[in-house]
Design goal:
The protein is an alpha/beta fold. The chain is built from 12 helices and 12 strands. It folds into 2 domains: about 150 residues, Creatinase/prolidase N-terminal domain (Creatine Amidinohydrolase, Chain A, domain 1, 3-Layer(aba) Sandwich); about 270 residues, Alpha-Beta Complex (Creatine Amidinohydrolase), CATH 3.90.230. Helix content is about 30%, strand content about 15%. A 6-stranded mixed beta sheet has the order 4-3-2-1-5-6, with helices on one face. The chain starts with a helix and ends in a 7-residue tail after the last strand. The protein binds manganese (II) ion (MN). The site of manganese (II) ion has 5 residues, from loops.
Length: about 425
């Protein structure tokens, strides 16, 4: 892992060498960010490190820290270590990455200006511009040209990043297995959520996104997070939950039926087959939107096979009825962010890439290239808000729709890495 990390850091530093030279800077300062205070309160929101800061190193929980990098020199990492008895004290940094940085500490946040380089006239600042940096004469704050350059290149992952994501998937899989058990043993949504956290050993603050733990019809609410606290005889369970390793994320969805060999179990199987089918169609050089079309072709087949409508698959596809049952995008880039950045940048100069016109909720419609990591997450839901304008229409088989409504609808989501010679599923080694 240390070698992988070393190569990753070399790549990151190489990118900064290039972009600093390209736009005539001597140096870059990245600010980790800070914990924000709630309005008229003395409590703070959970701290989340600036993503381009953690691109350098897995320094995830050290607010008010700086990375300073000048081409051809060892990057500096300056960490705040407050001395007070109220808060738990940040420990000195440890880990494989430490030896590749000049690490130093400062004790008082008001001294942050003292630890910055003395001459900032050719220095780029990246990160959240809080008032601490007001009146400082950086050459620029968050120069869009630098950001676009870095965000474009972040869509191509290093071997180290892939290894982190494999591990994140492995951790999340333990949670999924524990959650499935909890559901089958009659736990409530909230209890199931706790079992998940317990299994992955993350606090609520550490999960990459709010877990979706949805029983029965709640599964049709795509971002459901108002867990019911009471247990009840649930028939189906959808869990969309991740985990992180060194700041890299997993994003996995699985769906279960309490009753095996039931019709809903068949529907889950059909959606799982769709996930695997879409993955099998992936080719380097193909536009990601082709996979979105593939998802709708599969949804049309599900409509026909389960008789959700009184028309065939071809007609359901052509008339775009599949969008009523399968309204979301087929997936998104993933990495340091769950919905990783870079989907609207075409090249390192920041040329804007327009989103799909046909599929308004599709985040990604760029060409699939070596190094990309993205999710594939088809679903098939009964969403009354979408079906309402069609209520009563004879093309729809309302008996079947009514029968499935109380199950919500399945989604099955894996993460995929495109390497030179393979399409690697980062999720399946750990979870069926
Ligand atoms: Mn996702």
């Amino acid at each position: 892992m240390k070698n992988l990390y070393k190569n990753h850091l070399d790549r990151v530093l190489g990118l900064f060498d290039k972009v600093l030279e390209k736009y005539s800077y001597d140096e870059v300062v990245l600010y980790s960010g800070e914990a924000k205070t709630i309005y008229l309160d003395d409590n703070k929101y959970p701290y989340k490190v600036y993503t381009n800061f953690k691109y350098f190193a897995p320094v995830l929980n050290y607010p008010n820290s700086l990375i300073i990098y000048k081409s051809a020199s060892k990057p500096k990492l300056i960490v705040l270590q407050k001395v007070d008895f109220w808060d738990s004290q940040p420990k000195p940094l440890e880990g494989d990455f430490c030896e590749f940085f000049d690490i130093s500490y400062y004790n008082n946040i008001d001294d942050i200006k003292k630890v910055l380089p003395s001459n900032l006239k050719n220095t780029a600042f990246l990160g959240e511009e809080t008032e601490r940096f007001n009146n400082l004469s950086f050459k620029s704050f968050n120069d869009q040209k630098i950001i676009d350059f870095i965000h474009y290149h972040r869509t191509f992952k290093s071997e180290y990043e892939i290894e982190c994501m494999r591990r994140a998937n492995k951790i999340a899989s333990c949670g999924h297995i524990a959650a499935q058990k909890a559901f089958l043993s009659g736990c409530s949504e909230l209890e199931t959520h706790f079992e998940y956290l317990k299994a992955i050993k993350h606090t609520e603050k550490q999960v990459p996104y709010e877990n979706i733990v949805a029983f029965d019809d709640a599964a049709a609410v795509l971002h459901y997070n108002s867990y019911k606290t009471e247990s009840f005889e649930a028939k189906s369970f959808l869990i969309d939950a991740g985990a992180s390793y060194n700041g890299y994320h997993a994003d996995i969805t699985r769906t279960f039926a309490k009753e095996q060999y039931s019709e809903y179990h068949e529907l889950i199987k059909a959606v799982n087959d769709s996930t695997l089918n879409i993955i099998s169609k992936i080719k380097i050089g193909m536009n990601y939107e082709v996979l979105q079309e593939e998802m709708h072709l599969d949804a049309a087949k599900i409509i026909e096979d389960f008789s959700f409508m009184n028309i065939g698959a071809d007609e359901a596809y052509e008339k775009e009825y599949t969008k009523l049952f399968c309204p979301a995008g087929v997936g998104h880039y993933i990495g340091l962010q769950v919905h990783d950045i870079g989907n609207t940048i075409k090249d390192e100069n920041g040329t804007f890439h327009e989103k799909s016109k046909k599929h308004q909720y599709l985040r990604l419609n760029k060409t699939i290239e070596v190094g990309n990591v993205f999710t594939i997450e088809p679903g098939f839901y009964i969403i009354d808000q979408l079906l309402k304008p069609h209520f009563g229409k004879k093309e729809f088989n309302w008996d079947v729709i009514n029968k499935f409504r109380s199950f919500g609808g399945p989604r099955v989501e894996d993460s995929i890495y495109i390497s030179e010679n393979s399409v690697e599923n980062l999720t399946r080694p750990y979870l069926p």
